[in-house]
Amino acid sequence: MTTKPTLSRRQFGAGVAALGAASTLPMPALAQSKTIKIGFVTPQTGPLAVFAESDAFVLEQFRTQLASGLEINGETYNVEFIVKDSQSNSNRAATVAQELMFDDEVHLITATSTPDTTNPVADQAELNEVPCLTNDTPWQPHFFGRQGDPAKGFDWTFHFFWGLEDVISTFTGIWNQTETNKVVGALWPNDPDGNAWGSPDVGFPPVLEAQGYTLVDPGRYQVMSDDFSAQISAFKAAGVEILTGVVPPPDFTTFWLQAAQQGFEPKVVTFGKALEFPQVIGSLGDRGEGLSTEVWWSPGHPYSSGFTGQSSAELAAAYEAATGNPWTMPLAFKHSLFEVAIDALKRSADPMDPASIRDALRATDYQSVVGPVNFMTGPVPNISKTPLVGGQWHIEDGKPVLEIVENDDHPAIAKTADVTLIGG
Amino acid sequence: MPVSNTDAARIGFFLAVLIGLATGPYWADRGTMRLLIEAFYFLALAQLWNLLAGYSGLISVGQQAFVGLGGYMLFTLTMFAGMPVVVALPLAGVLTGLLAWPTAMVAFRLSGPHFAIGTWVIAEVYRLSFAQISALGGGSGISLPTDIVRGMADGRAARESMTYWIALAIMLAVIFGIWVLMRSRVGLGLGAVRDNEEAATSVGVRTVRLKFGVFVGVAAMTGMIGALIFLQKLRITPEAAFSVNDWSVLVIFIVVIGGIGSLEGPILGCILFFVLREFLADLGSWYMVILGVISVGIMLLEPRGLWGMVNRKRRFTLFPITRQVDQNP
After folding, report:
1. What are the structural domain ranges in chain B?
2. Do residues B46 and B269 make contact, with C-beta atoms less than 8 angstroms apart?
3. What ipTM did this prediction achieve?
4. Do B57 and B260 touch, CB atoms closer than 8 A?
5. CB contacts < 8 Å between A and B, how many?
6. Helix (H) or strand (E) segment spanning residue A226
């Protein structure tokens, strides 16, 4: 007969008793402190991956600073960040938000970068009653896209970013500084941003008309198109000198190449989304010179982080030193997302209680690296607006440099140059 | 008919699994329930695709058309017609089935690979069409107001249990429905059509009518599952609703690695898919690459999938549908 290591009933009983006794002993101090879990949904892969480039740096910064815990009401808590990739897909964003809430049981959920990630996450949080903080989606697609009622707002979800009215004001502010025939061509896709920007009620058309611009709008196109001949010939026929739109980077590259091939040479080109990133401008070579865009943050912004104390310039420099990549606007917004979250946790009566975190979020009045954030004074409940100015790219020594050329709404953010015409 | 030992074992096994799953809300935590709901609807989609491709020879890569239609129907019926969710779910399936009728008339003009491409094109047409409907958010998509979902049941636990049971019921209805169908005259006819359409026609199987019926029936069930999916997602956009990746590629992956043309295969495929996803989804693009490599590998090793591997040595079946000659008359 072979001998097997066996456990007698008596031994088993003794073991269980010992375990039971051990569990009543005081646990080591480290394991005793409670952990606050913060979920973070971000488009790390897919067409919007460029928005997530600074994630790793920002998370590392916060993890290092919070390594020794966060003190709230005299008690020290561990803070854990759990990151999930939305794959730039709203189905996936909803699924990972549920995973974070049900499996990881996060105390607070955060998300950034475009409605496809922030909206599904906020919807899940609202239904499942988990406090939620998001940014980096213009506030109208976030609030009205989720059927928000300005009279009621939401219970659990908070969002900070600029809105449509800001981008309209910034773009027309740039154009008003130039000498053109005031004929504006618009390339607006059939997506959340394109529909909002092109809306005859809240978008560009009524403002342009009021300010004496002529709008040439060839209609919403499907994103990821490979042929813009129809739009280009419509713009050429109407004598468009100012070109605008809000398109994903690949679409802008295709459009801009075909515009060159077909001899369409506008004097001012101001786009949202595609032209926000130095990587995209860099890939255009000399054709990137003079393109303009809205600027949500730059190293020259007169704000500093309430968490690390870094000024905008210091944050950008730290990022460039650590990663070797040029600074991008989402960098500061990721940073601000977590600093606002940490601020709310610090003010919460009990960070283990969702309602308590929610109430603290609602009462937010905070100076962040992207400007003041206050959810009580917003245009609608649960929304806080951050400042927006206009910028223009110049190619210096082969590298794209962004100058601030328009600051009418926010004079505190200094202008660094005047608008120049493309090829002029 | 006497009950054999294997039948008794099979019935016992089914009962154990059924009871285990049906009591889910009493033993599973919220995370597990959420995962099971997702597994149920992926398995149901896989079985339905298997019925089309594995049993009826209709290789469609456009089933996302019906997932999306069902999802949009749910949003329309609950938001604009004010229907309660439990009524809107089955009705979304029925309406999707009705829309599948004209869709099938177009698709059935094509056959073989042309049919596959045709179904995909039709799904894209639906996607582009829904992107134009501004009442449903157009290309921007729309969220389901939380009050509608909250109105399903009293309290969070009751609502989540209810969703779970609905998902389980749909999945069981699909599996047992297909099982019963395949053991019937219709199943025999479908098998004949798949093996040789001309021969089947010549012996009197009404091939076109049969395939048409299966296609529309599958579409209706797929629509109901789509409604359930977007009840879970809470937000619908044309890209998400008519996503070829989420609702066709992954479903085909499940059927192909599990074993096409069997009811057991998709169950195995679904389990493997969820295990892989739990461990690999954080790898980003590499995750899709790994799924691709696995499916190519399995197809090379055993075209009948994992269930084919299991069945290589000893013939065994959970859902007997093939007929055998009785050895001892």
Report:
1. 10-243
2. yes
3. 0.80
4. no
5. 95
6. none
The closest of A57, A56, A159 to A113, measured between CA atoms, is A159
CB within 8 Å of chain A, chain B residues 161-200 = none
Residues A140-167 as b or e (16 or more Cβ within 10 Å = b):
bbbbbbbebeeeebbebbbbbbbbbbbb
Give CA–CA dist A32/A384, Å, rounded: 37
Q: How many CA atoms lie within 13 A of A283 on its CB side?
A: 13
- The answer, yes or no, to whether residue B62 has pLDDT greater than 90, is yes
CA distance readout (Å), A9 to A2, A17, A18: 20, 12, 14
Assign A8 to helix, strand or coil.
coil
Over residues B127-145, the mean pLDDT reads 88
Tokens representing residue A277 in the block: 């990133």
CA dist B221 and B32 (Å) reads 25
SS (H, E, C) B48-81: HHHHHHHHHCCCCCCCHHHHHHHHHHHHHHHHCC
pLDDT in tens, A194-247: 888 998 988 999 999 999 999 999 999 988 889 999 999 999 999 999 999 999
In chain B, residues with a C-beta closer than 8 Å to the C-beta of A95 are 38, 233
The pLDDT confidence band at residue B233, using thresholds 50, 70 and 90, is: very high
Buried b or exposed e, range B290-304, using 16+ CB within 10 angstroms? ebeeebeebeeebeb
The pair of three-digit structure tokens given for residue A218, joined into one six-digit string: 């060839």
**Taking chain B, what is the end-to-end CA distance rounded to the nearest angstrom?**
14
> Mind telling me how many Å the CA of A419 is from chain B's nearest CA?
33
Answer whether B33 touches A (CB < 8 Å): yes
Mean pLDDT value across residues A189-198? 86
Say what the pTM is.
0.84
Buried b (16+ CB within 10 A) or exposed e, A215-245: bbbbebbebebeebeebbebbbebebbbbbb
Q: Which of A87, A191, A222 sits opposite B140 (nearest CB)?
A: A191
How far, in Å, CA of A24 to CA of A310, rounded? 45
Q: Which of B80, B130, B146 to mutate to test the interface with A (most CBs of A within 10 A)?
A: B146
